Amino acid sequence: MLLGAHISIAGGIFNAPIEGKRATCDTIQIFTKSANQWKAKPLSDKEIARFFEEQKNTGVTVACAHDSYLINLGSPDEESYKKSYDSFQIELERCHLLKISLLVMHPGSHLGNGEENGLKRIAAAFNLLFERLPDNKTVVCLETTAGQGTNLGYKFDQLAQIIDLVEDKSRMGICLDTCHIFAAGYPLQSKKDYEETIRQFDRTLGLNRLKIIHINDSKKPFGSKVDRHEHIGQGEMGLESFRHILNDKRLSKIPKILETPKGEELLEDIENLRLLRSLIEK
Asked: How far apart are CA 165 and CA 159, in angstroms?
């Protein structure tokens, strides 16, 4: 089973696998550029070669990248939409160069323009991008959201609508965030509730589309629609929720990534990963 965490690229993208190993990760998620800037300095051949080398040296793979938090492909504002589109293209191109096969992204926010309009706008951007980048096979993983504000993607149906509108469906996947779906109102705590939530996911989206799991506890209560991550077992979800996920054979091959708070020593990641591993039935 591949367990890991989101790891910083401070000091160079090639440092991420080294830090991932220090945090006892099998695999990691990274940003390929600053998450708080639109543009990025191009990656040099030297940086890319060292990135591959450090993965080989450490044995830590890169399961996925996460796009910038600035990007909103659902925005009704033309200037913001254009910036988001151009920035997301850069994200796809960097994943292609780094041979990262999955790019996780929050679908976007409609900002008062209506959910249907927002969903159509997001899908239209993917259609244009995939047509523009035919050789780029990076799979875009729509992340389930908590439903805060005007954020889209808090219902499995909304993610299915986006995928239905995308012509090249082979380039679309899903990232399931445990904190987000719990906050959005999908129960996970009892075995019965967990199974029903997974059944709903499978019926609506298909488990074959599930490529990444963000494995986070929730600081806020069930159905709160508030996105606040907490350390495993210290939030509202309870350890049983994670036991169900970790022992579900259908999900055993899917990388599971922590996005919980951490300090420089990564002790929090080490403890969260230790706890998660302890829940796996031998």
From this structure: 10
Beta bridge partners of 5: 28, 258
d(CA 217, CA 224): 14
**To the nearest whole percent, how much of the chain has pLDDT over 70?**
100
Nearest residue to 193 (alpha-carbon basis) of 240, 141, 258: 240
Backbone angles phi, psi at 243, to 5 degrees: -60, -40
Number of domains in the chain: 1
Which residues are CB-contacts of 59 (< 8 A; sequence separation ≥ 6)? 21
Tokens of residue 79, six digits: 């200037």
How many Å apart are CA 282 and CA 273, to the nearest integer?
A: 16
pLDDT(17) > 90: yes
Query: 222: domain range?
Result: 3-278
Q: What is the pLDDT of residues 62-119, one digit of tens each?
A: 999 999 999 999 999 999 999 999 999 999 999 999 999 999 999 999 999 999 999 9
Query: What are the two backbone dihedrals, phi and then psi, of residue 10, each rounded to the nearest 5 degrees?
Result: -55, 135
Structure tokens at 12: 């160079």
CATH of residue 15:
3.20.20.150
Q: Provide the angle, in degrees to the nearest 10, between the axes of the packed helices 15-22 and 45-58.
A: 20
Residue 169: how many CA atoms within 13 Å on its side-chain side?
11
Flag whether pLDDT at 40 surpasses 90. no
